[in-house]
Amino acid sequence: MHGSPSRYQLAEIGSLLADPSRAAILLALADDRARPAGELARLAGIAPSTASAHLGRLVEGGLLQVLNQGRHRYFQVAGDHVSAMLEVLPLLRPARSRPPGPTAAERPLAFARTCYRHLAGYLGVALYRQLREQGWIELGDQAVRLSEHGCNALRAYDLLPDGAQPPGPPGRSCLDWTERRFHLGGPLGVAITDQLLQRDWLRRHERTRALVLTSPGRAGLRQMGIPLDD
């Protein structure tokens, strides 16, 4: 879609997000995993027939896409732009003098989660801050780039794909809705997050976007100088 959005396009997107069941479906898919309709119905707490109707509207509205695997159909967000929208929308709420802390159910997501395919939450913000303070990344006008020093340092921690050379894949600053500060997004953020998962420093939660920090991950991130609460 090119050019500025019209009022009708904005209203259409708003109507798609206005239903709590559709919002639950979108949030369940915000980690870029593809899920079948039955699983999404269970996660949203609705009947399969109701989920089917909601999924049809979300696909028609361009927020979801369908992946066909033989006789099975899976649903996935239509791209990084959709997950970025879901991540930043809560920031539009009116600011409060004392924002409430996360509930018990929200704490795992607030600590570490996927935003599309990159690391978000407290851990994502802390990692981004450390990368900047150590000079391991450089902020340009259009993108975040690895420095040569950063490439060597991250390679030493085995947090870059094999063969990665500076400036490496481009990254971008992504505003975090729970921390209200930036974490690292874009292909560079995805590449580092993939390595954190492959190294078993982080593990995916089965039913949510939350990421679980493992004992090796806690030790490794502390070694990198990232502060962690016990």
From TrEMBL:
InterPro entries cross-referenced by the UniProt entry: ArsR-like_HTH, HTH_ArsR_DNA-bd_dom, HTH_Metal-responsive_Reg, WH-like_DNA-bd_sf, WH_DNA-bd_sf
Every HTH arsR-type domain range: 2-97
Pfam family, one: HTH_20
CDD domains from the UniProt entry: HTH_ARSR (cd00090)
Protein name: Winged helix-turn-helix domain-containing protein
Higher taxonomy: Bacteria, Pseudomonadati, Pseudomonadota, Gammaproteobacteria, Lysobacterales
